[in-house]
Specification:
The chain has 602 residues and is an alpha+beta fold. 25% of the residues lie in helices and 29% in strands. The chain contains 14 helices and 28 strands. Belongs to the PheA/TfdB FAD monooxygenase family.
Length: 602
């Protein structure tokens, strides 16, 4: 994807794994110059993380690669719980449950090899002339000039890059110095960047050692194609079915002995440990495509950003936890989903650099919560079956990200008149700081069914979602006309944000709940179906919460608890999280929200 042709870039990304590639996709087809380097000579070939939660798939959809991911992914539909009883030899099935969270209204998780996710993200970048990916390249020194950090046009980050000589781990060849405005370390658990930035990991490195293997099994275990938690007296296995007839198993191996060093673990040791837990069923390996052993660590960096928000760390570079929690690739991608749009808007001159400070304040607490969850994760599977359903449901909501709520800041604000916390909103999903639920909608113009996050492309745009209610009723339609006029008013900066640069900094979407045949698209205010001399009308901004022709009714108003008469206005950040919730005609709250950090670019 290019060679080292320029010494100055806007963003230098160290590490081309899931986090680095996802971050680079936030600059897709922009004018921001990005250099992505990785010490590995080749992409990931097998193994590593591969469990994808629905939120992560939504992010891939915003990059435009969601259909490719879904086409290859193996969906997980059922979970079997196996336990042991006193006086009974071996394990027995306790229950089978659906692998779902009802509120999602779609599959909760799927499996796709990390190598394939990386492939699709890298392939997407081939269309971006502004992004260069170099392999077999690593940083050897870094310096950040404090005198230049306060100047937006300066390149305060200086990084010496080197190339490893083929066949040698010791001989590095200097390939030049890169000057960058920002640098992001996405270089994994053994992060060079973390050490260079003097960021410390806080937490524990336990004595527990686990083995993991991807293999085609020869077994008489009946639930081999379900997600399984096997809780025996001598350990707990997490079993996850994969594509190509394979399964993945996470297995505890002996600890507190000479075997406690992962380097001493062999595939035979892992297999023997698995056989003891899965007894009385037999287990053999037909073929094994990948295996590894690791020591469980639960640690979080004391900082996610340094040097006045010129240097950042993301993913495994700044937090580590047990892969059994199934959050490895998910937290990495979600970290950079939080950071990418902020860097893009600042570099494009559309937002004040103060928004970069919110990366650490938003993502570090999430990492800390994940570590706390990880520490108690195994306790869940030693609980009695009577309590398992409720506890597992809570865990499912957490790992899916539904419980995340970013704290108040300049980009997460409560609407006027609700005080600092707005306690009446805390029980709802439509709340500032939480991710917008991925509701199903029907396009007004042609009846096409879509989900809202498929429409929220990773372009760096904010969206104002106007839930206008049943606009077939004259009073509600008149209210909508007024709102449309106010949103487009050029005498206020908000109008400039909506109608300014191409693409506009703020996009307005209308979601009504009237019968479609009672609404004429071109009778709506122009802000909801703007005209372009080159492309004509934009027909893809008006949606209805109605019955679709083939996928049923999404019931978005019901799921989000929006009154069909009162309506609601929701500002959604570029990463899909809610910035503010207000009354449908409270345009002033929208103006106040953007006034705190946005800059008008014309």
């Amino acid at each position: 994807m290019g060679s080292l042709s320029a010494n100055f870039v806007d963003v230098l990304i160290v590490g081309a794994g899931p986090a680095g590639l996802a971050l680079a996709n936030w600059f897709h087809k922009s004018k921001i110059r990005v250099l992505l380097v990785d010490k590995r000579a080749h992409p990931t070939l097998c193994g590593q993380a591969e469990g994808l939660k629905s939120t992560t798939v939504e992010i891939f959809e915003s990059f435009g690669i969601g259909s490719q991911i879904w086409a290859e992914a193996h969906r997980l539909e059922e979970i079997a719980i196996w336990g042991h009883s006193e006086g009974v030899h071996g394990i027995r099935r306790e229950q089978v449950m659906q692998d779902k969270v009802q509120e999602l209204g779609k599959p909760r998780e799927c499996m796709l090899q990390q190598s394939r996710c990386e492939h699709h993200m890298a392939h997407n970048l081939l269309q971006s002339k502004n992004v260069t990916l170099l392999r077999n390249i690593r940083p050897s020194s870094i310096n950040i000039d404090s005198k230049d950090m306060l100047t937006s046009e300066a390149y305060p980050v200086s990084v010496q890059l080197s190339r490893m000589e083929i066949g040698s781990e010791d001989h590095q060849i200097n390939v030049g110095t890169i000057r960058a405005k920002y640098v992001v370390g996405c270089d994994g658990a053994r992060s060079w960047m973390r050490k260079a930035l003097n960021v410390k990991l806080e937490g524990d490195l336990t004595d527990s050692v686990f083995g993991v293997m991807d293999f085609i099994p020869k077994t008489n275990f009946p639930d081999i194609r379900k997600v399984c938690y096997l809780r025996a007296s001598n350990g707990t296995i997490l079993l996850v079915p994969r594509s190509n007839r394979e399964v993945r198993m996470y297995i505890p191996v002996e600890s507190g002995s000479e075997l406690s060093d992962p380097k001493d673990i062999t595939l035979d040791i892992i297999l023997e440990a698995a056989r003891k837990i899965i007894s009385p069923y037999n287990l053999d390996i037909a073929t094994c495509s990948w295996w590894s052993a690791y020591r469980v660590g639960q640690r979080v960096g004391d900082h996610f950003t340094t040097h006045d928000s010129r240097a950042f760390l993301a993913g495994d570079a700044v937090h580590t936890h047990s892969p059994k929690a199934g959050q490895g690739m998910n937290t990495s991608v979600q970290d950079v989903n939080n950071l990418g749009w902020k860097l893009r808007l600042v570099l494009e001159g559309k937002a004040d650099p103060c928004i970069l400070d919110t990366y650490e304040s938003e993502r570090r607490p999430v990492a800390q919560d994940l570590i706390a969850f990880d520490r108690g994760y195994l306790k869940l599977f030693s609980a009695s079956s009577n309590s398992f359903d409720d506890e597992f449901a809570k865990a499912s909501r957490f790992t899916t990200g539904m419980s995340i709520r970013y704290s108040l800041s300049n980009i997460v604000q409560m609407p006027r008149g609700l005080g600092d916390l707005g306690p009446s909103l805390l029980k709802l999903d439509l709340v500032p700081g939480k991710r917008l639920a991925d509701v199903q909608l029907v396009l007004q113009v042609d009846g096409t069914t879509t989900r809202i996050h498929q429409r929220l492309h990773a372009s760096g745009q904010f969206r104002i979602l106007v839930f206008a209610g049943d606009i077939s009723q004259p009073p509600l339609f008149d209210r909508l006309r007024k709102v449309g006029t106010q949103l487009a008013d050029d005498s206020y900066p908000l109008g400039d944000l909506i109608k300014g640069s191409d693409p506009a900094q703020v996009e307005v979407l209308l979601i009504h709940c009237a019968d479609r045949d009672k609404v004429e698209l071109l009778s709506l205010p122009e802000v909801f179906r703007p005209w372009n001399e080159e492309y004509g009308y934009d027909y893809w901004r008006v949606f209805a919460d109605v019955e679709s022709a083939h996928e049923g009714h999404g019931r978005a108003y019901e799921r989000l608890e929006v009154d069909r008469l009162k309506g609601r206005m929701v500002i959604v950040r570029p990463d899909g999280y809610i910035g503010v919730v207000a009354d449908v005609d409270d345009v002033e709250s929208a103006r106040m929200y953007f006034d705190r950090f946005m800059r008008v670019v014309v």
